[in-house]
Amino acid sequence: MDRVHEKNEEASHEASCSDCGLLNCYRQESRFPDFCPGEGVEDQVLEAITSSYCAEDEDSRAAKAAAEVEGLYYGKLTRVEEVLAFARRIGARKIGLATCVGLVDETRLFSKMLRQNGFEPYAVLCKIGSVDKTEIGIHEELKLRPESFEALCNPLLQAKMLNDWKSDLNVVIGLCVGHDALFCRHSEALVTTLIVKDRVLAHNPAAALYTSRSYYKRVMDKGRNL
Q1: Residue 13 in domain
Q2: Is 217 domain-assigned?
Q3: Which of 41, 44, 12, 10 is nearest to 25 (CA)?
Q4: Prediction pTM value
Q5: Which helix (DSSP H) or strand (DSSP E) does residue 110 occupy?
Q6: Nearest to 192 by CA among 32, 85, 104, 113
Q7: Structural domain tally of the chain?
Q8: In contact, 157 and 129? CB cutoff 8 Å
Q9: Is the model's pLDDT at 4 over the cut of 60?
């Protein structure tokens, strides 16, 4: 019965791009599947969005800069170098760094690289403001070190400080899951990511996907409560 239930669940989910084995949208060398979300987009909607990339505005400049960096340097540059190349192409000079306190050494190195390349970096740590977690209703037992002062991560203040500084581009360096989302929501400048935090996998979260059938098989356990 469990297998039948599992098959019924799989059959009832709404198909999306992750279910596609054709990937015809990339080079149009095959065909589109019947459920293709892109094929369901109305012509006028697609035309309006496509035309927005042709406008002389920030979205257009960012899209064209990203495509140029991809076309010129795909598989040739590191992520650090790609950020520099992208920032230069959108005319960014003031680079805001929204960083985890645990990656401050990496932030110092990246700041030095930015200065060496003619940019002006400004870093704001996640613990800025130094507000204890209990002040927003976090229980002591949920601290890493209960019964001691432990500052909450403050992505809203990070975003405000970089907004006030009027950064041209903000770079996330290891913010926690969720805190990074809040920072991106409240940042006025465009945001890109340099490092995604994953303490277990040396900041390489894709490793859990690559090993999901072996070492990290637990990530495939159905109904696992986290």
Answers
A1: no
A2: no
A3: 41
A4: 0.90
A5: helix 104-116
A6: 85
A7: 1
A8: yes
A9: no
At 186-224, the pLDDT tens digits run 999 999 999 999 999 999 999 999 998 887 788 788 777
Containing domain of residue 174, as a range?
A: 24-195
CATH code, domain carrying 123: 3.40.50.1860
E-only strand ranges, 73-223: 94-99, 120-125, 169-173, 190-195
Q: How far apart are CA 127 and CA 70, in angstroms?
A: 34
Q: How far apart are CA 128 and CA 101, in angstroms?
A: 9
pLDDT tens digits for range 42-91: 999 999 999 999 998 999 999 999 999 999 999 999 999 999 999 999 99
The number of helices, as runs of H, and strands, as runs of E, in the chain is: 9, 4
CB 103 within 8 A of CB 125: no
